[in-house]
Amino acid sequence: MPNRPEDDWTRPIPRSPRGDRARPRDPEPYDSWTGSSQDAWDPQAHDDWADQTRELPTGRRATAADYGYSDDEFADERWEEVEYAEAPRGRTGRRADYEGGGYDAGDYDGGGRHGGRPGPPRGGAPRRPTRRRFRLRRVMAFLLLIVLAYVASMIWAVASIWSSIDRVDSTPTNAARPGAGSGSNFLLVGTDSREDLTRDERNDLVTGHTEGARADTIMLLHLPDGGDPVLLSIPRDSYVEIPGQGSNKINAAYSIGGPKMLVDTVEQSTGLRIDGYLEIGFGGFVEVVGTVGGVRMCLDEPVTDEKTRLDLPAGCQELAGKEALNYVRMRYGDPRGDLGRVERQREFLAALTHEMAKPATVLVPWRLHQVGTATGSAIALGEDTSMWEAGRIALGMRSISDGNGQSLTVPVANTNYQTAAGSSVLWDEVAAADLFTALRTGAPLSIEP
């Protein structure tokens, strides 16, 4: 339909005069406007005129005179100007309804005058909250719930691991214990205990049936105050002084007095104070390796050992079960004897730590719980070793497995030193003393890995 401004019912109508000016108007202006020739005021005619449809001018805005008022009758009226953020829209909601029909988009005042409905505030009408914002809040709440559930499950996994670990008394009572030095030192021990193995398992793993327990693997992990860790292997046949027992192989200290005696012997032999203790037996070692699905090792040449019935081809392969255990225990088939064995033990331990520290294990709560509790039930910690110290041990071993830090063996002068205890390993006293002093004081190491 065509747009006729004269039919626009939204245009403001001036209010009637107030006070003493509310009087009958001279009919002459109305007569001249409507074409009437009346000479006097006729109330009946006035009433008829009031019911007539007034024809408003076209092509311009109506003035007070068009309604029969003089210009000064509304001098005291207050006219309000309302700004719009955009041109007001017509009845159909289209801007074009007020353009091209005698109106300019910026001229329409929108009913804000003479007490009409106020226009929208400056800057446009406020926007209503959108459904998109509500959906975003729901998504954020859902993500927060997932994060809280993940954190709770990780706490549960760590707590379960910690509660599954056994404790042993490893704190020496010797009054002559070395004082604390630079960094921290932790003793890692693998025993040849077969107590948790059945007779069939002993036969399958070729462990023998010897009763009791001895320290089969001895390593010292040094974590400096700053810098990379050091993993030091101590040959189990090292000939040293055992406090109160005379000279003997160092692994005998464990069979004589358990972890406490072994820690005391290492402290007196090295001058390093031990801050934490961890041990694992044959059965625990096999269980941990099996839990991670085996450890990948790459051999430069075939490895065979008649005593343990070990036969491994050259190349990369997964080691688990008896192959893994006998690989780290074998020494008769290695030309380097005990020195070659401790090197294999460090390599295997680093590879095992690398497998256990994979994101698919440590970042997945149920997988962490599975591997962690299997490991926790297979190891034992010293009674004075805290959760924080156990975490430092794990991080230090992970650093070693990533190729950071150094892996060393105590300097040796003779690998076949004959003693009352049989063939033993004799340390290089000068080089060994320099190494222990550097670790104790935090000085650079003087020997190469």
From TrEMBL:
A Pfam family it matches: LytR_cpsA_psr
Compositionally skewed regions (Basic and acidic residues) per UniProt: 1-10, 17-28, 44-58, 86-98
Segments forming domain Cell envelope-related transcriptional attenuator: 214-357
Transmembrane parts of this sequence: 139-162
Chain segments carrying region Disordered: 1-68, 85-130
InterPro entries from the UniProt entry: LytR/CpsA/Psr_CW_biosynth (IPR050922), LytR_CpsA_psr (IPR004474)
Keyword annotations from UniProtKB, A to Z: Membrane, Transmembrane, Transmembrane helix
Family classification: Belongs to the LytR/CpsA/Psr (LCP) family.
Record protein name field: LCP family protein
Organism this protein belongs to: Ornithinimicrobium cryptoxanthini
Organism classification: Bacteria, Bacillati, Actinomycetota, Actinomycetes, Micrococcales
